[in-house]
C-alpha cells in the first residue's frame, strides 16, 4: 500500500501536468523538477538556486526527492505557475526584458527579485529607475587602450536621444555620444570577466563601436539595461507609428547570433590565415584581434540568397596558409570570404548561423546597411 509520501509525490507529478506548470515559471525551461512551497510555483533546478537567495520569501524543495506534507501539496494545488504570473506580473512594462533559460544568471536573478521580492510589477512607482526616460549614474568602463576599468559618469536621456559618458566627473562635454537609434546592449559576463558585465554598442561613422561596462550592484546594471530598452522602445514608437508592440520588442536589444574564434585570410587569398575573434550581430559579421577591442578590424555584410549570397563548406582547392582544417566560404556579390574553424562542430555551428541569415529575405532597411558596406573606403 502506498505511503503518504508516495501519494504526495504522485499528486505533485500530476500538478506538473496542469497548464503552465510544465515549464519553469521564471525562465521557461522545460520539465521543472523543483518547487517553491511558499510561492506555490514550479521552477527548474537553476532557478531554484536563485530562489534560495530570497529565502525569506521563497523556500524550495525537489518535487521528486524531498518529503512533502499534505498542507504543502494542497498549497501547490491551489496556486501554480499561471496563478503566480497573474499575481506578480500584472504590470510588466512592454520593454522590460523577460529572461529565458539561455540568459545569464544576473538577468534571471534580478527578474526573480523584481517579481517576488521588490514586487515591481504590482507597484508601478517601483519601476521609476528604468521607465523615467532619464538615468544618471557611475559605471565602471573598460579603457580602450589600457584595459583598465575606471569610474565614468553616464547619462541616458530620451529627450537628447542619446547615452553619454564623461571622462571626468565635472566635464561639460561627453567623451562619447551614443545615439539611441543605433544603440544595443547585451550582457557578456564571461567575455568581460565581470559577473555584471554589459557590452554596449553603437554605430560611429557606420562602424560598430564597443564599450564594456559593469557595476558592482546587479540591480543597478539590470536597471541600466532596461532603461536602454525603454529609451529604444519610445524611439521606435515614434519612428514606426502604428507598429504593434510585438513587432517593436525584438528590436529593442539583441544578443549576438554567434561569437567565437575563426581564422581568416585577406581579399587576395594569398595572405596567411590569422586567428580572429568573430561576432555575428544580425547581418554584420565583425572580426577583432581581441574579443574586448573597441573597434572591429573589419566587417562583412551577410545578405540573402535572393541577392547572390551563399555559404559553402570547405575552401577553394588552391587555398594555402591555413592550419585549422574546417573551412567555410562565404560568397557575396563582390568577393569570396574564406574562414577556417578549429573543430567540425564549430564549423557546423557557424554554417548554421550564416545559412539562417542567407535564407532570410532582406528587409528594406537592410538594403541601406548593405549599401554603406559597399561604399566604405
UniProtKB/TrEMBL annotation:
This is Arf-GAP with dual PH domain-containing protein 1 isoform X1. Signal peptide: none annotated. Keywords: Metal-binding, Zinc, Zinc-finger. It comes from Salmo salar (Atlantic salmon). It holds the Pfam family PH. Residues 9-129 form the Arf-GAP domain. Residues 132-233, 255-359 form the PH domain. The keyword Zinc-finger applies. PROSITE patterns: ARFGAP, PH_DOMAIN.
Amino acid at each position: 500500500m502506498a505511503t503518504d509520501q508516495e501519494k504526495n509525490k504522485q499528486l505533485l507529478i500530476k500538478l506538473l501536468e496542469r497548464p503552465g506548470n510544465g515549464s519553469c515559471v521564471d525562465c521557461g525551461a522545460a520539465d521543472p523538477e523543483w518547487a517553491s512551497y511558499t510561492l506555490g510555483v514550479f521552477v527548474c533546478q537553476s532557478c531554484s538556486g536563485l530562489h534560495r537567495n530570497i529565502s525569506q520569501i521563497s523556500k524550495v524543495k525537489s518535487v521528486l526527492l524531498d518529503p512533502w506534507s499534505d498542507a504543502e501539496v494542497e498549497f501547490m494545488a491551489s496556486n501554480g505557475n499561471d496563478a503566480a504570473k497573474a499575481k506578480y506580473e500584472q504590470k510588466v512594462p512592454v520593454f522590460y526584458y523577460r529572461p529565458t533559460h539561455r540568459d545569464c544568471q544576473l538577468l534571471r536573478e534580478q527578474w526573480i527579485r523584481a517579481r517576488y521580492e521588490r514586487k515591481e510589477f504590482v507597484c508601478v512607482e517601483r519601476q521609476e529607475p528604468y521607465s523615467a526616460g532619464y538615468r544618471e549614474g557611475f559605471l565602471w568602463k573598460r579603457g580602450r587602450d589600457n584595459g583598465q576599468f575606471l569610474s565614468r559618469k553616464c547619462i541616458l536621456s530620451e529627450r537628447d536621444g542619446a547615452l553619454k559618458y564623461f571622462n571626468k566627473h565635472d566635464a561639460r562635454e561627453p567623451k562619447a555620444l551614443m545615439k539611441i537609434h543605433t544603440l544595443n546592449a547585451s550582457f557578456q559576463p564571461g567575455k568581460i570577466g565581470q559577473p555584471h558585465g554589459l557590452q554596449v554598442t553603437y554605430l560611429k561613422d557606420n562602424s560598430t563601436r564597443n564599450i564594456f561596462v559593469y557595476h558592482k550592484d546587479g540591480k543597478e546594471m539590470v536597471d541600466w539595461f532596461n532603461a536602454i530598452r525603454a529609451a529604444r522602445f519610445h524611439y521606435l514608437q515614434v519612428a514606426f507609428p502604428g507598429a504593434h508592440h510585438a513587432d517593436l520588442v525584438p528590436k529593442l536589444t539583441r544578443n549576438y547570433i554567434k561569437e567565437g574564434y575563426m581564422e581568416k585570410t585577406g581579399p587576395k587569398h594569398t595572405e596567411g590565415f590569422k586567428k580572429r575573434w568573430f561576432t555575428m550581430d544580425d547581418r554584420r559579421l565583425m572580426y577583432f584581434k581581441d574579443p574586448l577591442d573597441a573597434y572591429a578590424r573589419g566587417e562583412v555584410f551577410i545578405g540573402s540568397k535572393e541577392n547572390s549570397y551563399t555559404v559553402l563548406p570547405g575552401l577553394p582547392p588552391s587555398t594555402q596558409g591555413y592550419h585549422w582544417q574546417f573551412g567555410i566560404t562565404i560568397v557575396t556579390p563582390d568577393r569570396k570570404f574564406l574562414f577556417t574553424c578549429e573543430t567540425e562542430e564549430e564549423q557546423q555551428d557557424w554554417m548554421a548561423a550564416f545559412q539562417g541569415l542567407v535564407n532570410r529575405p532582406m528587409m528594406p532597411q537592410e538594403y541601406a546597411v548593405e549599401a554603406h558596406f559597399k561604399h566604405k573606403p
